[in-house]
Inverse folding.
């Protein structure tokens, strides 16, 4: 199943049918893409989206980055709760968003590694460029 993981209905269908899924995305809110693929994402090193921080952060910027990361988790748990409930109903077991997305076979990311913030990624993440590339 080729799907966009922002709305994980395709992934729920892929898990229900036991077929592999390929994610095609630009990025996910709350760093779900990094969490699901187990990429390192320390808040003291990787700047949060919309924070305007660079990779050379001061101590205050690192603390701000930590607060942004913790607030993201509360917001995203609220936003993605309906999908977790839907997946739990369809798959007949409790499922979290991270667990749901961790079954993706390949992640095709529409971003260029040169223009974006460099970060460590797993082997199943492939940068394919995007409209701005």
């Amino acid at each position: 199943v080729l799907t966009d993981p922002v709305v994980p209905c395709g992934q729920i269908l892929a898990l229900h049918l036991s077929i592999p899924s390929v994610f095609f995305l630009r990025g996910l809110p709350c760093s779900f893409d990094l969490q699901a693929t187990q990429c390192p994402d320390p808040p003291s090193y990787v700047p949060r989206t919309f924070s305007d921080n660079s990779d050379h952060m001061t101590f205050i910027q690192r603390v701000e980055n930590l607060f942004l990361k913790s607030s993201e988790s509360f917001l995203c748990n609220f936003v993605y709760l309906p999908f977790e409930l839907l997946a739990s109903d369809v798959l007949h077991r409790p499922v979290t968003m991270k667990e749901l997305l961790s079954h993706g076979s390949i992640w095709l990311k529409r971003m260029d590694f040169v223009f974006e913030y460099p970060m460590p990624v797993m082997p199943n993440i492939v940068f394919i460029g995007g409209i701005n590339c």
